[in-house]
Design brief:
heterodimer; A: 425 residues; alpha+beta; Cytochrome Bc1 Complex, Chain A, domain 1; 2 domains; 6-stranded mixed sheet; 14 helices; 18% strand; globular; disordered N terminus; B: 420 residues; 5-stranded mixed sheet; 45% helix
């Protein structure tokens, strides 16, 4: 090897990207009104197709029916059994994935481009002709009931559900958490009904990313073009939120308590959303954040703590979440409030704000590094009624944030009396 | 196919680099060949505690994370039974920042008594969060103790108990650092859109000056052959009973690793696999079931694990698992099934190549096994495996006297039964 360097060189200079590049998705509208967005990238021989349907849990009229419908799509169709569907996807090494949140269901198929055609035959069955066989529905419900019971032994799960109840109200579609025994009341007809009502052309769109050739495009167009139209676009009215500011749940035996603190704010379309993302990141959005430094590095109360802005379709909120040693619950709570207060009273040092900004830009670069991350960001933008320039603009806003902005936002939105506190333990 | 260039610096540091033309990011990975298997039985959890301390700053960089974040980077680390791995992704223009930081903490770590004691508290909270305050959190710990009587794989990376972590002293921390955090004990790997020779030059620029003061790791006691079936029953406050059956098998470098991996995929890789389709979907004995291998550097384990449905008896569940093993031994595997899992390996391998971090991490891992070329040979190895060889693996492995069974019984289910 060369012998030039005999002592440790000094810190190298830094390059900070001042923008991120994100292509606008191609878009075409099919006869039934479904839009297909495409993000073509030739670098890899894979393709992903995601169908986004407005059929999340807040759209259901019976507990667990939205997630059951989404999860049962692949459990048998008009012409294929659940086993045949699983066999075909596995045979081509293709991925099929269903995710559900409060508002939407995301159905993704991912395959090597050369295997997209056989993969799409299965996709077509799953999307257009799910059968929801009685027997499979019963098995699913029994299984999920047990899994949810296990989940609800975790203080973190209990705290997450308690926070939603406190923030939105226990009957609000965003706040409700149903008894797992209600899985026993779920019937095939509930799923069929929800599918017919919500899995309609007016209620969905498709995003394709990766190596997209003409064959892929025509197949996707054929499948999405066959999604039936509906005369009524369902949009249930939400009751107003009924916020409870303090909710403590007993859970024994717990060597750790779970804490969630936050408040309802606004969704991504609000002009202060990006600014509050900066505030949340500074508070608990990265490893060096104020709460991590305080609760973990300085005090050792916790293994981790996070804060983030969460975006739903019709609401948005800020949440701080952590699990701490039970004997330090009160200490941790007062430190969290002290850190929030510090944001409201002391201007953030320029250096720290710069760090937060660079962190956020870096995070964006990592998400956008690869065709699937680009597709995910595009989906988020579409759901907010925005194009991909929204991401570029968000980056500009992050970079333009000043210490005064942080102070102003923290003062305006983080008043102690507005905060919700849930503790489990 | 991952193209790479490999080099060894004069001080013994292994360097493996890959040019990725599609990414704007650089991934820098550094792997130290020390894990929980190198620990003293009276001081377990130490390798992992030390991983935490590596973030506690050096004489010139008091906080490791700040410069990483300033460079728009993200970093983290993990420890397992075999090795400790640190990684950073950041814009490729800042790749030297990562090299600067990693080379600095390879030599200049500065742990104060305060930092050490706070970090011990953090790790104890991690212990609670992930193992004590979690349903089934101690299941793997119990299984390890049951399967291994001699080898240090008998404890988990987190350690045997929080007391071991509590006991760690600053002197032990320094001795551990001096022994294991040496250039010749480490592998640096990078994936980025940078010329490969240039990356090796940069590695030498930042790491070449570090003197190597190697001290051989203590030999590791190997596990003797198991000669009788083992069984442990515990009762816990959980909603459902879990059954785990584990078998000793070969190490990561053996042919049995590939046969074991393929067997686990035939049994539990995806919804169409044997165990999922038969025992979860058809017979409804389990709410979930899995079969997987550990892939450790020393002889590993093949593990079956199932969560019972309320109506399933323990006996019935165990019998069903053993019947599936027998079916594999009896040669029921079809060419179609073999083709299916081989296709899956290939697709997974290709999809894994999308990400620079994956590639850097894999280069480090394969270099550690001593056969980096394996990274591109595995698909071919899987392709060459026959159903006869898989059956033979099952016959040799799934023997009662080679088994360890853990019944993790739900206390409430047990109470329900006694009421009936």
């Amino acid at each position: 090897m060369n012998e030039i360097y005999t002592t440790a060189p000094q810190q190298p200079p830094l390059v900070t990207p001042d923008s991120v590049e994100l292509p606008e998705a191609g878009c075409r509208t099919l006869g039934n009104g479904v839009r297909i967005y495409t993000l073509d990238s030739d670098d890899f021989e894979v393709v992903r197709m995601t169908l986004v349907v407005r059929a999340g849990t807040s759209m259901q009229t019976k507990p667990f029916s939205a997630s059951a419908t989404a999860n049962m799509l692949s459990e048998g169709s008009a012409t294929l059994s659940a086993q045949q569907i699983a066999e075909r996807l596995d045979y081509y090494g293709s991925w099929f994935d269903v995710n559900i949140d409060r508002d939407y269901v995301y159905i993704s198929f991912c395959s090597l481009t050369k295997f997209f055609a056989p993969t799409s035959e299965v996709a077509e069955q799953i999307i257009l002709y799910p059968a929801f066989p009685e027997r499979e529905v019963a098995a699913y419900c029994a299984k999920r009931r047990q899994q949810l019971a296990v989940e609800r032994r975790k203080v973190d799960t209990i705290a997450r559900e308690a926070f939603a109840r406190a923030a939105f109200g226990e009957h609000h579609p965003y706040g409700i958490s149903s008894d797992e025994r209600l899985y026993d009341d779920l019937r095939r007809d509930d799923l069929v009904d929800l599918y017919r009502r919500l899995y309609v052309a007016e209620n969905c769109f498709v995003v394709c990313s990766g190596r997209i050739d003409d064959e892929v495009l025509s197949i996707v167009g054929r499948i999405a073009g066959s999604i039936p139209s509906s005369a009524v676009v369902p949009q249930p009215a939400f009751p107003p939120c009924r916020t409870l500011h303090r909710l403590h749940v007993e859970h024994k035996p717990a060597v750790q308590s779970a804490i969630r603190i936050g408040r309802l704010l606004f969704d991504r379309r609000h002009e202060d959303f990006v600014g509050m993302q900066v505030v949340a990141t500074a508070l608990g959005g990265y490893f060096g954040s104020r709460l991590m430094q305080n609760l973990r590095a300085r005090n050792g109360y916790t293994y981790g703590v996070m804060a983030a802005m969460v975006n739903f379709d019709r609401e948005g909120y800020l949440a701080i979440a952590t699990q701490v040693a039970s004997e330090h619950t009160d200490d941790a709570l007062s430190e969290i409030y002290a850190e929030i207060e510090r944001l409201r009273t002391e201007p953030m040092p320029e250096q720290e704000l710069q760090l937060v900004k660079n962190m956020m830009i870096g995070e964006m670069l990592r998400i956008l590094d690869g065709p699937f991350g680009i597709a995910d960001v595009t989906i988020e933008n579409i759901l907010c009624g925005m194009g991909n320039d929204a991401t570029t603009r968000a980056v500009e806003r992050i970079l333009a944030t000043t210490p005064d902005d942080v102070l102003r936002l923290a003062r305006m939105y983080l008043d102690r009396s507005d905060l919700i506190e849930t503790v489990v333990g | 196919m991952i193209k790479y260039t490999m080099a060894t610096l004069d001080n013994g540091l292994t360097v493996a680099v890959n040019r990725d033309r599609s990414s704007k990011l650089a991934a820098v990975n550094i792997l130290y060949k020390v894990g929980a298997r190198n620990e003293d039985p009276a001081h377990t959890g130490f390798a992992h505690l030390f991983e935490h301390l590596m973030f506690r700053g050096t004489r010139s960089v008091p906080d490791f994370d700040v410069p990483v974040q300033m460079a728009c980077g993200e970093n983290n680390a993990f420890t397992n039974n075999d090795y400790t791995d640190f990684y950073i992704t950041l814009p490729k223009e800042n790749v030297e920042t990562a090299l600067w930081l990693e080379s600095d903490r390879m030599r200049n770590l500065d742990i104060s008594p305060e930092a050490c004691s706070t970090e011990k508290m953090v790790v104890i909270e991690e212990f609670k969060q992930r193992y004590l305050n979690q349903p089934y959190g101690d299941e793997m710990m119990l299984l390890r103790e049951l399967c291994y009587k001699v080898h240090p794989y008998r404890w988990s990376t987190i350690g045997i108990s929080p007391e071991h972590i509590e006991r760690a002293t600053l002197d032990e921390v320094r001795a551990f650092y001096d022994r294991y955090y040496q250039p010749s004990q480490a592998i640096l790997s990078i994936s980025a859109d940078i010329d490969e020779r240039q990356m090796i030059t940069l590695a030498d620029k930042w790491f070449g000056h570090i003197a190597d003061m190697p001290r051989a790791a203590a030999p590791i006691a190997q596990e003797p052959d198991q000669t009788a079936a083992r069984r442990l029953v515990v009762e816990r406050d959980v909603p459902a009973t879990n059954i785990t059956v584990a078998f000793h098998m070969g190490d990561r470098r053996s042919r049995d690793f590939f046969l074991g991996d393929m067997t686990s995929d035939l049994l539990a890789g995806g919804d169409s696999s044997r165990l999922v389709s038969r025992l979860v979907k058809e017979r409804r004995l389990f709410s979930s079931v899995n079969a997987y291998i550990l892939g450790s550097l020393d002889a590993g384990l093949f593990i079956f694990r199932g969560q019972l449905m309320p109506s399933t008896s323990e006996h019935e569940a165990e019998e069903a698992l053993w019947a599936e093993m027998q079916d594999m031994i009896d040669g029921s595997i079809s060419d179609y099934e073999m083709e299916k899992v081989k296709n899956k390996f290939e697709a997974n391998a290709l999809m894994g190549e999308i990400n620079v971090m994956n590639k850097a991490m894999n280069l480090g891992f394969y270099a550690m096994t001593g056969d980096i070329a394996l990274i591109n040979r595995e698909i071919e190895i899987y392709r060459s495996l026959t159903r006869e060889a898989v059956s033979d693996f099952c016959r040799r492995t799934f023997r009662p006297e080679n088994s360890s069974t853990l019944i993790y019984r739900s206390a409430e289910r047990a109470a329900d039964k006694s009421k009936m």
